Input
Amino acid sequence: MMKKKLAMAVAGIMVIGLLTGCGGKTTETQEPVTEQEASAGEENDVQEPGGGVDSSSTGEGLIGVSMPTQSLQRWNQDGDNLNKFLTEMGYEVDLQYADNEVPTQVSQIENMITKNAKVLIIAPVDGGALSAVLSEAKEAGITVIAHDRFITGTQDVDCVGTFDNAKVGALQGQYIVDALDLENAEGPFNLEIVAGSLDDDNAAYFLGGAMEILQPYIDSGKLVVRSGQTTREQCATEAWQTDVAQARMDNILTAYYTTERLDAVLCSNDSTSLGAQSALKSAGYGTEDLPFPVLTGQDCDIANVKAIIAGEQSMSVFKDTRALAEVIAQMADTFVKGGEPEYNDTETYNNGAKVVPAYALDPIVVTKDNYKEVLIDSGYYTEDELK
Output
């Protein structure tokens, strides 16, 4: 497993030499999502996407975009943003969602290969399950770009566009340290952990980045995990599902916190955070006598930003999907035109078969204090969407 640097220096998230085009059409066979449950640089350093695409772009041909699921808000946003940038560049886009099923994703990618796609942009359901179909893509001369989630165990991936995922976890861990004032407070404080899906390689970096910050406090006894569940396997949430996270947190609260108060919950993303919140509410948290613990998240999904505003979630880590889509669309366009994209890390991302060149963006902490600046002023959400 690759080792991700906690503090990767990222010069900026704007795409260099942005391209634009004459429009295009989209092939999309999936039904609209019916449920949008929620899935760093300096806190106030708001990152915005570039100002559009250059009128010199004249992209032609098909680009396949394979997203893992429509059940989480962020993947719908990623798909929509990629479709927007690529069609503006002049490409036809085949956008597919795999319903968190590996065989479905493999079949959809095979169809994109059959359609002679020039580039495949893939956010995998399972980063280690695509070697065979990506070998087919390479034999067909198709470029493969990993979108945010890493693709492992294969030579047949050309690059990755992502966020500094270990830094995401580090920001969550540091937020807990600061919120509980662990440097000065006597403690001990009770902590529980809700991690991501075992088939998502990024989840290891989220948890690893957080635990690098929190483990010394656990070792010293200032933080106590009363359930004893601290490993990735023990804390995993299948497919990042809210109800799975809720059920596990229900069990933890019943078994270990009938008389003890829970002070902090490290949740790797927003969908797991929503599950933890539901369990905490059922256990009586959210009152004046028993306020919510410090509760982290990631993705700034609408439901979770509302929870932050309401004081039910403490923070979320913002990853601007517009900026990521713009970077990856630029990568695809550059490959089609015979060039090599810009990278800012060509050493870190070892997928077990090769070191994959990467462009990684910086995440940002969002709280009740800065959500307007980061999310509304940047145009990511409107005020009405967060009411």
In short: Residues 36 and 287 are 27 Å apart (CA to CA). Residues 1-56 have pLDDT under 50 and may be disordered. The radius of gyration is 21 Å.
